[in-house]
Amino acid sequence: MSIAMYKGYGVHHCVIGVKRLDIMKTFYQDLLEFNNVFIEFPTGEYAPLREVTRTSHPRYTSIFLSQEEGGIIIGLTQMIDPVPRAIRKDFRYGDIGVAKLTIAVSDLERLYGELKDRLNFCSRPKSLEISHWGDYHFMYCRDPEGNLIEFISGSNVSVRNRFGGVRWLGVSVTNLHRSLSFYQKYLGFDTTVISTHTNFSGLVDEISGGNQTKVRSCVLASSQGEGMVELFEVLEPRGRSIPSSTRWGDFGFTQVCLNGKVGANIYKVAAHFEKEGMEFLSGPQLMGDEKGGGFFYIKDPDGIPLEFLVFNQ
How far apart, in Å, are the Cα atoms of 279 and each of 66, 76, 196, 302? Predict the structure, then answer.
């Protein structure tokens, strides 16, 4: 098996730890049209997550959703045991970790007009030009539990319906050069969609808590699969590191899940990452549902949880 087979094939899903699954599910389905159900986990104990949750009897309930046009799946997960806590009580753009969902829309101004009384928008739509990309129109809102959602449109954003799916996850890092190298070398993000730039500087003060926020950012994709990642480093004000007491399932964005090659041997894949010196949060675990396959968890250079997921078919 070649080394390339062990790399990721794009982002499959993002898990969001929630306080109230009923409220969050209604929000994402009714307002943002996440109506495709990938899988639902009823309240129960799930032994494969013992290592990553650091408990002997992890219990939770969860639903995984996507929009009609597909895109990255979001997993709304309400932990029961261990009892979840807020990752941060005063989340700011730039704090290290999975920081936002970026959803493509067909008409940003129209969406703002239709939903400004129902969504907690951080500002009106904004626009800028990005070199080798073109026009980029964006605005942010917060979901009922304060998680950031970015809506984007532009000439390079093709959308058939009102919403075009979660195109990428925004991951805030402490050192963009280091993280860029890691995601390209080990995780299969071999295509640069938007090169490193600083054009968002001064345009995200409403969500950073700063004045004339300085940020540099890039967007990466895998040539082998969909689901992109935006890596960004907030230079001023600097983002805060992940609290050491944070556990999987705490309130807020929790993880990035990468697709592995269908049918790959999860134990061989994990052995490869171990040989590469990765820090593991969880060893290989088999999935017992009808889809089959397995998963394991590693950390990126900032300690952000990364799940590597392989389906049998």
Answer: 30, 26, 27, 11
DSSP string over 196-235: EE-TTTTS-HHHHSSSS-EEEEEEEEETTEEEEEEEEEEE
- The residue assigned the tokens 């009580």 is 89
* CATH label, 3-82+247-310, candidates 3.40.50.720, 3.40.1190.20, 3.10.180.10, 3.20.110.10: 3.10.180.10
Roughly how many angstroms between the first and final C-alpha of the chain, as a whole number? 18
pLDDT tens across 207-221, in order? 998 899 999 999 999
Distance CA 264, CA 248 (A): 25
Do 15 and 295 contact (CB within 8 A), yes or no? no
- Tally the C-alpha atoms within 13 A of residue 272's C-alpha that lie toward its C-beta: 18
- Over the stretch 237-293, which tens digit does the pLDDT of each residue have? 998 898 888 999 999 998 999 999 888 889 999 999 999 999 999 999 998 654 578
Structure tokens at 112: 């703002």
Question: For residue 102, what are the β-bridge partners?
Answer: 150, 168
Burial of 132 (0-12, 13-18, 19+ CB in 10 A): exposed
Cis amide prior to 125 (ω within 30 degrees):
no
Q: List 17's β-bridge partners, or say none.
A: 77, 252
Q: What is the pTM of this model?
A: 0.94
Tell me if 60 sits within 8 A of 41, measured CB to CB: yes
The distance of Cα 287 from the centroid of its chain, to the nearest Å, equals 21
Beta-bridged to residue 228, according to DSSP, are: 168
Backbone angles phi, psi at 4, to 5 degrees: -60, -30
Do 3-82+247-310 and 97-236 show the same overall fold?
Answer: yes
Task: Give the length of the chain.
Answer: 313
Q: What is the DSSP string of 260-283?
A: --TT--HHHHHHHHHHTTPPEEEE
Alpha-carbon distance of 38 to 12, in angstroms, equals: 11
